[in-house]
């Protein structure tokens, strides 16, 4: 990268100069607002709640080569322009493509090669790969290998795996970040480092999010072994069918049951198809890593109240289960290669929040949750309860930044959606989810009230535009990372003391006052 002084040149000129000086071709890589593809590139797969800023990126850069990323870093540093790195664009608050100060988007969609080694059961995966593409590629190589990560196929590897990565095999194989065995990262000095050169600092991107520490280019992942046949079921019960007691009982078994079994639970308010009244529907959406005839006795012993029948169970391959849980059951497996969200993940405006439960919520508390769900229109609000325990507890709280281990029964994901931004409907729904979150406070973890980093929530607090103190950032940092936040601050202070990589909730470095 050229070292000419271009402080005063606007960003596009600086970048074009940099490209030319390294004989790189900016066409199909650098998009300005005048370019016909700019608007469609800007559009994120997951629409954010409300525009936090009317600013649009100065440029969108979709690199193919590392030297193109180095050119972007160079110009951002010279001109004080902020960089926002986007891999899959599913950030809950749009932090990969929105900023209140002049910025460029580094969109990693062209970094998407996957190479699988079936001998040592590993994969090198570039960050612009989607989970769907990763799962598809693994399945093409082997029927008994898989990877443990999230459910939505269009989520990007870059943000998801560096920030945790919970999925339907997490009780058996824990989260994605626990399976990072190496990585290629471009640091703030635009050098590429790997596990050997990063040493202990690799810790930071194993659940602490890439955002604060550098640009992750690729991960080396340890794959997991799976049976050739898995079993799924999706069984719903309404209040008239004993849903309250079932949900109450579920809390006592969900984290302790056989670790091959992950009984996810969705809660919504619906109009009963039988009685025509508004009721709560509890849907047990489940993956079992094995055949149905092993699953049924487990359910009979631990959760007979659900009344699971053999005909509720569907056997399939793991890759078919990926389609099943994405609501793409009748599609060909190649749909997993698409970057366009479909099925249950069609884009909406939405707000998500998270909580962790360490003591079962009493029946009275559950009834209060039902009242909140009834306040919202059908299909607009949903609670997702994701069980922990099993392999998640095999790691200590401090092994990776992801601190939510032994003692956590389940995570609650609150979500509300709407169709158009910036109107009274969106305001009302944002207000609803915040009130619900407040209502839940007595029933969830405290000191800190834990939250899941991958379900980023700016309500928990934000950085200042200038320096942010440790005390200020620890308000949300301790919620996301527990005491690991302190270690993340130390890594940040070492690898990026000038705070080049930052956003509204990035880990700040410790500032030493002069
Ligand atoms: P995006 O590109 O928006 O990046 C997210 C954050 O990471 C941003 O701050 C960005 O700057 C940073 N970043 C991205 N790439 C980087 C890189 N290469 N280097 C450094 N920083 C980088 N989670 C889960 O655990 N299980 C699940 O099942 C789901 N399901 C799900 C469904 C849907 C519809 C959505 C919208 C989200 C989820 N998630 C999830 C949450 C998801 O894990 C989270 O939003 C991830 O950050 C998304 O990663 P992307 O790369 O897609 O996002």
Features:
514 residues; alpha+beta; Uridine Diphospho-n-acetylenolpyruvylglucosamine Reductase, domain 2; Uridine Diphospho-n-acetylenolpyruvylglucosamine Reductase, domain 3; Vanillyl-alcohol Oxidase, Chain A, domain 3; 3 domains; five-stranded antiparallel β-sheet; 14 helices; 27% helix; disordered N terminus; binds dihydroflavine-adenine dinucleotide; flavoprotein; alkaloid metabolism; oxidoreductase
Written description of the protein model:
This protein has 514 residues and is an alpha+beta fold. Helices cover 27% and strands 20% of the residues. Strands 15-12-14-13-17-18-16 form a seven-stranded antiparallel beta sheet. A five-stranded antiparallel beta sheet has the order 5-6-10-8-9. Helix 1 packs antiparallel against helix 3 (66-79) and helix 13 packs across helix 14 (484-495). Residues 46, 84-92, 95-96, 108, 127, 150-152, 155-156, 158-160, 163-167, 209-211, 215-216, 345, 454, 503 line the site of dihydroflavine-adenine dinucleotide (FDA). Residues 46, 84-92, 95-96, 108, 127, 150-152, 155-156, 158-160, 163-167, 209-211, 215-216, 345, 454, 503 line the site of dihydroflavine-adenine dinucleotide. Residues 53-226 form the FAD-binding PCMH-type domain. Pathway: Alkaloid biosynthesis. GO terms for molecular function: FAD binding; oxidoreductase activity. Keywords: Alkaloid metabolism, FAD, Flavoprotein, Glycoprotein, Oxidoreductase, Signal.
């Amino acid at each position: 990268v050229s070292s000419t002084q271009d402080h005063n040149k606007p960003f596009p000129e600086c970048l074009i100069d940099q490209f030319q000086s390294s004989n790189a071709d900016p066409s199909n890589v650098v998009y300005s607002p005048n370019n016909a593809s700019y608007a469609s590139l800007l559009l994120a797969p997951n629409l954010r709640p409300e525009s936090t800023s009317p600013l649009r990126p100065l440029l969108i850069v979709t690199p193919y080569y590392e030297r193109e990323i180095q050119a972007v870093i160079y110009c951002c540093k010279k001109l004080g322009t902020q960089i926002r790195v986007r891999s899959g664009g599913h950030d809950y608050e749009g932090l990969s493509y929105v900023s209140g100060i002049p910025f460029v988007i580094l969109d990693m969609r062209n970094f998407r090669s996957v190479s699988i080694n079936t001998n040592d059961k590993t994969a090198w995966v570039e960050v612009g790969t989607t989970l769907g593409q990763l799962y598809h590629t693994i399945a093409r190589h082997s029927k008994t290998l898989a990877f443990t990560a999230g459910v939505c196929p269009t989520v990007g590897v870059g943000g998801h795996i560096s920030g945790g990565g919970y999925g339907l095999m997490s009780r058996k194989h824990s989260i994605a970040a626990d399976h990072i065995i190496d990585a290629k990262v471009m640091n703030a000095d635009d050098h590429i480092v790997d596990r050997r050169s990063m040493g202990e600092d690799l810790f930071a991107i194993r659940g602490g999010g890439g955002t604060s520490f550098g640009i992750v280019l690729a991960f080396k992942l340890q794959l997991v072994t799976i049976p050739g046949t898995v079993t799924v079921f999706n069984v719903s019960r309404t209040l008239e069918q004993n849903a309250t007691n079932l949900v109450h009982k579920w809390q006592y078994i969900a984290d302790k049951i056989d670790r091959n079994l992950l009984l996810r639970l969705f809660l919504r308010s619906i109009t009963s198809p039988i009685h025509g009244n508004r009721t709560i529907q509890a849907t047990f959406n489940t993956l079992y890593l094995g055949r149905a005839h092993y699953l049924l006795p487990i359910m009979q012993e631990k959760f007979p109240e659900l009344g699971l029948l053999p005909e509720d169970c569907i056997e399939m391959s793991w890759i078919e289960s990926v389609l099943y849980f994405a609501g793409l059951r009748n599609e060909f497996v190649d749909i997993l290669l698409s970057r366009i969200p479909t099925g249950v993940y069609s884009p909406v405006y939405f707000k998500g929040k998270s909580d962790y439960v360490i003591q079962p919520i009493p029946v009275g508390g559950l009834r209060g949750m039902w009242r909140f769900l009834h306040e919202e229109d059908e299909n607009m609000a949903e609670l997702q309860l994701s069980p922990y325990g099993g392999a998640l507890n095999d790691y200590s709280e401090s092994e990776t930044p992801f601190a939510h281990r032994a003692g956590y029964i389940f995570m609650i994901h609150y979500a509300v959606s709407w169709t158009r931004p910036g109107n009274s409907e969106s305001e009302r729904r944002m207000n609803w989810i915040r009130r619900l979150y407040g209502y839940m406070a007595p029933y969830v973890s405290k000191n800190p009230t834990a939250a899941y980093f991958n379900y980023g929530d700016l309500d928990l607090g934000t950085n200042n535009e200038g320096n942010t103190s440790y005390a200020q950032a620890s308000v949300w940092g301790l919620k996301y990372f527990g005491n690991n936040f302190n270690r993340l601050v130390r890594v940040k202070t070492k690898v990026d003391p000038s705070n080049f990589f930052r956003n509204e909730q990035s880990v700040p470095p410790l500032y030493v006052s002069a």
